[in-house]
Amino acid sequence: MGLRSRLAAPDEPTGTDQGDSRLVAVYRAKLLQETDLAEMSAMPTREERTGGQRKFVLQAGVLFEESEADLSEESLASLEAVAAAIEEEQPEWVNIFGFTDSQGSYDFGVQLSNERAENTQLALIDLMGDAGDITFNINGYSEEYFLYDNSTDEGRQKNRRVEISWPTGG
Asked: Any keyword DNA damage (predicted)?
């Protein structure tokens, strides 16, 4: 596998183990370059358009109760904009990645982040009415790819998120 495909994850499905530390460092650096950290932390939902990709990052606190995977009623408003964008662009595939903080066991974090990503997918499909031929790449990364300091309450809160992205072709 080429270097480009290894470094692209988790933005693109590659079917490989995403846990290597170089990948984590590159991914975190890329995100930090794209948006000022103070600006990122102030928004419960943010949208990024970079390098032929459109991405929505939603803070888990907006979508879910702590340690829960069921979407809150309030989360639907945040997901409506994402669903509308997906419907408009009709991408071939959409990534939905869940992330947790470092509290609890790693295995619980993987399970919780996977369930959150899956529930987000189901809500988006419901909001779109018809997902057509879109392939969804769902993955939970637990505490991997953290963006903030997991040793503080504020940092852990900001690390709990769901990222939804797809290629835009330009």
From this structure: no
From start to end of 85-132, where are the E strands? Answer: 93-99
Cβ neighbours of residue 88 under 8 Å, at least 6 residues apart? none
Those residues whose C-beta lies under 8 Å from the C-beta of residue 114, and which sit 6 or more positions away, are 98, 138, 139, 140
Domain count of the fold of the chain:
1
122 exposed, middle or buried (CB, 10 Å; 0-12, 13-18, 19+)?
Answer: exposed
Determine the structural domain holding residue 92 and report its residue range. Answer: 3-167
The answer on pLDDT for 156 being more than 50 is yes
Summarize pLDDT for 9-19 with one digit per residue, the tens: 444 444 444 44
- The reported pTM is 0.73
DSSP-assigned beta bridge partners for residue 154? none
Q: What is the CATH number of the domain that holds 75?
A: 3.30.1330.60
